[in-house]
Amino acid sequence: QEELVELLEVHIPKATAGELDLHVLLNDPHGISQACTWYCRPLCSAYMKTYPDQFMPFIESHPDIDAFCKAEVEPSFRECEQLQIIALTSALRIKVNVVYLDGHDAENVQTHSFGEGLLEMTMLYRPGHYDILLEKEG
Length: 138
Known about the structure:
Layout: H1 2-16, H2 22-27, H3 32-50, H4 52-55, H5 65-73, H6 82-92, E1 95-100, E2 110-114, E3 120-126, E4 129-133
Parallel strand pairs: 1-3
Antiparallel strand pairs: 1-2, 3-4
Helix pairs in contact: 3-5, 3-6
């Protein structure tokens, strides 16, 4: 957990300062993105299995938390849904703001915040995909 947070703390501030192209870094198929994704899946699964009472009331598609994690959290190329975001932000002790751009109402974009922590990041959600949003300086 600390390694991932440290990695994000090192690279995100550099990206906002223009010293690093975060888009290139996170889209390198052999780079940091795959390592982060691989790390987050078992971390999310472990957190959800540790605190199943927080999540099971919202899971209707699987009989228990183990089955849910095995089918929806642990496999590669599965979508990260709201329950997984809640689990990850809790496990990592970070705050994530998700801006939803789903095409329903471009005038009133919805933003939902998850978690608490010293590290805060904002992500844009377009159906099927998340992008990290960086604040433009100046």
